[in-house]
Amino acid sequence: MASQATKQLSTRLLAMAETWPKDPFRPNLQLGTFLKSLAAHPRLTPQAVEATRALRDNDMYEKYPLSQKMLKPASSPHHYERLVEGWEKSAQGIGRPWWKVFFGIW
Questions:
Q1: Spatial CB neighbours of 23, under 8 Å, sequence gap ≥ 6
Q2: Angle at 39 between CA 37 and CA 40, to 5 degrees
Q3: Of the residues 36, 73, 78, 99, which has the fewest C-beta atoms closer than 10 A?
Q4: Which of 44-48, 91-95, 102-106 tops mean pLDDT?
Q5: Domain locations in the chain?
Q6: Which of 65, 103, 91, 67 is nearest to 83 (CA)?
């Protein structure tokens, strides 16, 4: 039988799993589904729940922020902006026209 502490951890993890964002590129493989099954594990640890919370809250990005030099490298200052824009458009089903791909225009 699960202890009260394990039940509380499971409840916290289930709450995080419910609010986890869906991945539009892999609808059959969602992290939220994995977290729900992990919440039912009999040996769930506080460290696993804390790691999930830290991942959700972006703790490492806040603890170790990236500099502008890292985000906008001199060789291609718009690389990451274009990468994010392409990912967002792709999630909406919008592709680049063939002529932009052919000529390397963004």
A1: 29, 30, 31
A2: 70
A3: 99
A4: 44-48
A5: 1-65, 67-106
A6: 91
Mean pLDDT of 16-29: 92
Q: Which two tokens stand for residue 44?
A: 């769930």
Structure tokens at 28: 């059959």
**CA nearest 35: which of 53, 62, 61?**
53
Q: Supply the DSSP string of 10-54, one letter for each residue.
A: HHHHHHHHHHSPP-TT-TT--HHHHHHHHHT-TT--HHHHHHHHH
Token pair recorded at residue 18: 């419910």
* Alpha-carbon dihedral sign for residues 70, 75, 77, 81: negative
Share of the chain above pLDDT 70, in %: 98
